[in-house]
Design goal:
248 residues
């Protein structure tokens, strides 16, 4: 079994879906977890439901000051920081690029790209100060390597995360901080549920070789492997959990 005893982890976007599953698996595997999300009441309820002394903080990852405060909270409340999962993300508007709403473009880039930069920018010095190195996983998507009609901002941000992951891994290998990206295909979460009617959902299920969507837990098991010492030689790379979507 993978264990994270003595480690502190931050998971962003942890009140729902994939982030919630990751926070739960980390906590059940011995980590002290700080759940960060937009809504304090929802995040506190999620931390309570997880148990294992999980903590909650309200933080909008698109605001560098709030991200700095999030990292400070992890360090002051637990004594250090070792693991970070940059999971918070939004789908944004669906529209052809020639009609793409400018405010929607900026919001998606602010959350899905700038939010990940801010997370690493503030967590890495704290990981270095903790003295034991660290591990970071950035949640990209299959749309980090292939396109999807109408989703230019999301596709651009998720592609950019692969470059950002490689850059961070090279810059901090000497600090014993590993950085990897994960690319899920369609995962059954509130984000997908909100965006799709039943027919579209059926069609999307059929686009995976395994003819279904994944579960948040199936993403979490890959993320926890990458965060663990079992992945000690894995850094700067992109790992799919996509039911064969991109193999076709
Ligand atoms: P979700 O909507 O269920 O959960 C996302 C959480 O992030 C929500 O609780 C939301 O409040 C939070 N969040 C949104 N903006 C935030 C911000 N600015 N600051 C802090 N928190 C914020 O979504 P999910 O499906 O679990 O997605 C999680 C991640 O996985 C996202 O990065 C998404 O792009 C990625 N992803 C999802 C799928 C999928 O099919 N569900 C596929 C590939 C990648």
């Amino acid at each position: 079994d993978i264990r994270f005893d003595g480690k502190t982890a931050i998971v962003t976007g942890a009140a729902s879906g994939i982030g919630l599953a990751i926070a739960r698996e980390l906590a059940e595997s011995g980590a002290r977890v700080l759940l960060a999300d937009l809504d304090m009441a929802k995040t506190t309820a999620a931390a309570r439901a997880i148990g294992h002394d999980a903590l909650a903080i309200a933080a909008d990852v698109s605001d560098a000051h709030q991200v700095a405060r999030m990292v400070d909270a992890a360090v002051t409340r637990t004594g250090g920081l070792h693991l970070l999962v940059n999971n918070a993300g939004i789908g944004g508007p669906l529209a052809p690029l020639g009609e793409y709403p400018l405010d929607g473009w900026h919001r998606v880039i602010d959350v899905n790209l700038h939010g990940v930069f801010y997370g690493m920018r503030h967590a890495i010095p704290a990981m270095k100060a903790s003295g034991a190195g660290g591990a970071i996983v950035n949640i990209s998507s299959i749309l980090g390597t292939v396109g999807f009609a109408g989703a230019s901002a999301y596709v651009a941000a998720k592609h950019a995360l692969l470059g950002l992951t490689r850059a961070a891994a090279l810059d901090h290998a000497a600090d014993k901080i590993r950085v990897n990206a994960v690319g899920p295909a369609f995962i059954h979460t509130p984000l997908v549920e909100a965006a799709l009617d039943a027919d579209t959902r059926k069609a999307l299920e059929g686009m995976h070789a395994l003819k279904r969507m994944g579960t948040p837990e199936e993403v979490s098991s890959l993320v926890c492997y990458l965060l663990s010492d079992r992945a000690a030689f894995v850094t700067g790379s992109y790992h799919l959990v996509d039911g064969g979507y991109t193999a076709q």
